[in-house]
Amino acid sequence: MIIVDTETVKLFEIVNKWCPEMLPFLKPNELDSLIVLRDGLGILEQGDAMEIIQYSICEHQNDVYIQ
């Protein structure tokens, strides 16, 4: 049996740790997004953090319609 430790964090925590300069550009609902990390925030690398941030922004934009 494989045991995987997961940690659920808000996107805010990832952005604040890896690229706090992006905080003013993200909406509150984006920053409140819950992210499940397979091995926790402690070993998250910057490249992975950026990928998570980009994906989260794209997910929130899926609900936006251009008129």
Write a brief caption for the model.
This protein is α+β, with helices and mostly antiparallel strands.
Structure description:
- The protein has 67 residues and is of the alpha+beta class.
- The protein has one domain.
- 42% of the residues lie in helices and 12% in strands.
- It has a two-stranded antiparallel ribbon with strand order 1-2.
- The longest helix is centred in the C-terminal third of the chain and has 16 residues.
- The model has no long low-confidence stretch (mean pLDDT 87).
Number of helices: 3
Spatial separation of the terminal alpha carbons: 51 Å
Q: If strands are numbered along the chain, what order do they take across the biggest sheet?
A: 1-2
**Rg, please?**
13 Å
Q: Percentage of helical residues?
A: 40-55%
Mean pLDDT: 87
Q: Biggest β-sheet, characterized?
A: 2 strands, antiparallel
Structural category: alpha+beta
**E-strand count:** 2
Low-confidence stretches: none
Shape: globular
How many independent structural domains?
Answer: 1
Strand fraction equals 5-15%
Topology at a glance:
Elements: E1 7-10, H1 11-18, H2 28-31, E2 34-37, H3 46-61
